[in-house]
Design brief:
The complex is a heterodimer of chains A (239) and B (302). By secondary structure, chain A is mostly helical. Chain A contains eleven helices and no strands. The chains are: A mainly alpha (239), B mainly alpha (302).
Chain lengths: 239, 302
């Protein structure tokens, strides 16, 4: 199910040349802001929770998820070079699975790692806040990567639709319509984080059973369907 | 009409150039400004998917609708309830809808420049009589105009609705004019930032993600820092922090000079002195974007 060559190529596509530098700009910014806040405020649990919840989980993880998830397959389909990959004797679900693993790994490294560091800078993991949000980032990375990888195989405008989901659905509708929060990767991951650490600082609108089931279902279904899409991929010309 | 070319080759010499009747163009040459205007109108139409495939019309039109529908609903409510005022100020509308505006500029800026880079059509443009400055100006003006259309249209809806609801004419006109100035500044600023980022990458998807990341992350960090500054009671800092993201920059300019209430936490806006700094930073950013674009396209080889 895991093909090292495909993985190597995907890593190069995602992190090659200057892309790793650009991708690490976001985590660096998060850490810089944490340092500034720590300097201004000192250790404050509520501030730490607000910053990690508002900036890291709500904004940074989805954006990195979109870049890594769609970037793992989108550009190849876009410029047509995916046919060279598809013409090799590698099963297409294997290609998807490998690319998913890579996308998850990249998202985790660039989102969960900085979240943990920022959490320790902000309040030294008081009330388990740093660990809780790191768990949330890890869980969210898996679901986002699977979801956006599927989008990358379905649409040429995957990045836009991914961002519409992350910014308009989760952030805008999520804050206006509480029902929208039930269908939000962010809330599912927060539910898991809440359960893992048992703290009161990390809360979610979704219960743990619902969240876990939905997370697993979304990840598995998205991966399976992306494999199916790739089996019957037709390359459209540039519009 | 092919010009008869006398076969003047000396006898015995078998080499000759056959004239197959190609003719020089001797119609009117419309020149540099015409080419620039064409590029402008094509780019502007392209920003709404006009003249392109149906698929590429979907997103801009959808975002345009999303921008206008809330305005229409607000107007309907104001008319139905005989309200004395619109539920939102003209200047506030763009701030509320900033996610949609960001998505629009993020999706259309790469559409405008990245594809030219990717399919290497930029040298073809420069083989026409246009210069680097013409290309940059045409693209910049086209995206700024497209942004202005999408941000000003809901204001027009609000204004017409306000007049239909028989609200105070002078008051509404003043607010509408202030709103238009504010969205004009916003359009030029956002278009510049979007184009500079998009012109770096030939990958459309990566360009979109980069533009949206710059816009939302800067807003996210600035508003987080402002909220912290407010809870710490250091309200002086709020206005200065606002300088660091495009949308709070616009918000600061309009709350200092265009009669808007600041959207920042605690409603603390910059005063007149700080407002001047805001305007200078906004204009400086626009000039910097233009300069960076000129630098980017200086080499036609790319």
């Amino acid at each position: 199910m895991y093909d090292p060559t495909v993985a190597r190529l995907t890593y190069r596509a995602l992190l090659g040349r200057r892309r790793a530098l650009i991708l690490s700009a976001l985590p660096v910014l998060l850490i810089v802001i944490s340092v500034i806040v720590r300097g201004l405020v000192g250790t404050d649990d509520q501030t730490a929770a607000d910053l990690l919840g508002g900036l890291a989980i709500a904004t940074m993880v989805p954006i990195i998820g979109v870049i890594a998830g769609t970037g793992a397959i989108g550009p190849e389909i876009d410029d047509g070079s995916v046919v060279y990959l598809l013409s090799k004797p590698v099963k297409r679900p294997t290609i998807i699975f490998t690319k998913l693993i890579v996308a998850i790994a990249v998202t985790m490294v660039f989102s969960a790692g900085p979240t943990l560091i920022a959490g320790f800078i902000l309040n030294g993991n008081g009330q388990q806040i740093a660990v809780a949000y790191t768990v949330a980032a890890l869980v969210a990375s898996i679901a986002y990567a699977a979801l956006f990888l599927l989008l990358g195989t379905v649409s040429r405008h995957a990045v836009v639709f991914g961002l519409v989901y992350a910014l308009v659905w989760e952030a805008l509708f999520g804050s206006l319509v509480s029902g929208a929060r039930t269908l939000s990767v962010q809330q599912w991951s927060l539910a898991v984080a809440h359960e893992v650490t048992g703290g009161s600082m990390v809360t979610s609108d979704v219960g743990l059973p619902t969240a876990t089931v939905l997370l697993v279902v979304v990840t598995v279904l998205a991966t399976w369907y992306a494999g199916q899409k790739l089996r019957s991929l037709t390359l459209a010309g540039e519009e | 009409m092919a010009v008869e070319h006398p076969a003047a080759a000396p006898p015995g010499d078998q080499t000759r150039i056959h004239n197959i009747g190609y003719r020089n163009y001797d119609g009117p040459r419309l020149g540099r400004s015409y080419a620039t205007r064409s590029l402008y109108s094509q780019s502007l139409r392209g920003s709404y998917g006009l003249g392109r495939s149906v698929k590429s019309k979907v997103l801009p039109m959808l975002l345009f609708a999303v921008m206008c529908v809330p305005a229409a609903i607000m107007v309907a409510v104001a008319v139905a309830t005989q309200a004395n005022d619109l539920p939102v100020d003209y200047t506030r509308y763009a701030i509320i809808m900033q996610a949609v505006i960001s998505l629009y500029v993020a999706s259309q800026a790469p559409q405008s420049v990245s594809r030219d880079l990717r399919f290497k059509t930029v040298p073809l443009y420069f083989s026409r009589p246009i210069e680097t400055a013409d290309y940059v100006r045409a693209k910049y003006a086209a995206l700024a105009s497209a942004m202005f259309i999408i941000t000003a249209a809901p204001l027009v809806v609000l204004y017409v609705g306000a007049l239909l609801a028989k609200l105070d004419f002078a008051d509404q006109t003043k607010g509408f004019a202030q709103g238009l100035v504010s969205v004009a500044l916003l359009s030029v600023l956002f278009a510049g930032i979007g184009l500079v980022i998009a012109s770096v990458t030939p990958r459309r998807g990566f360009g979109i993600a980069a533009v949206i990341a710059v816009l939302t992350i800067s807003y996210g960090s600035v508003s987080t820092l402002q909220a912290i500054a407010e809870s710490q009671g250091t309200t002086d800092a709020i206005a200065w922090i606002g300088l660091f993201s495009p949308i709070t920059l616009i918000d600061g300019v309009q709350s200092a000079f265009l009669g808007a209430t600041a959207a920042s936490p605690g409603g603390v806006g910059p005063g007149n002195g700080e407002g001047v700094v805001y305007v200078l930073v906004a204009l400086g950013l626009i000039a910097a974007c233009y300069g960076l674009l000129m630098r980017r396209y200086r080499k036609a080889g790319l």
